[in-house]
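Much of our argument rests on the idea that a fold can be written as discrete symbols. Part of our work consisted of pairing the sequence of a single chain with a tokenised description of its backbone. The amino acid sequence and the backbone structure tokens for this protein are reproduced below.
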Amino acid sequence: MEKVSIRSYKNISRLFLSLIILIGFFYSSIVKADTSPSQLPGQQLAYFIGYHSGGYYEPPPYYYHRHHRSVFWTPWRYVGHGCRKSCLIDRWSGHVIRCRRICR
């Protein structure tokens, strides 16, 4: 009978495992190189928060109000009891910046 040592089987399994890991490493680098870069997440959100937010705080207690671009005043509307109201609206977001109320 032929004697086969167990060590040779261990060496073959180690060689096979290292070969599989090496092939997996090269395959993952090829797949990573083929993917096209996408737009960074949150880039548009940062623009929205930085550009269109209302006022911002400098070191306390100073409060600075940003200059609003593309805003308009709504026409005066009757709100009851002899009062009228007009509001300043941001065209880009539609948010109400402030309102004026006149009562007579």
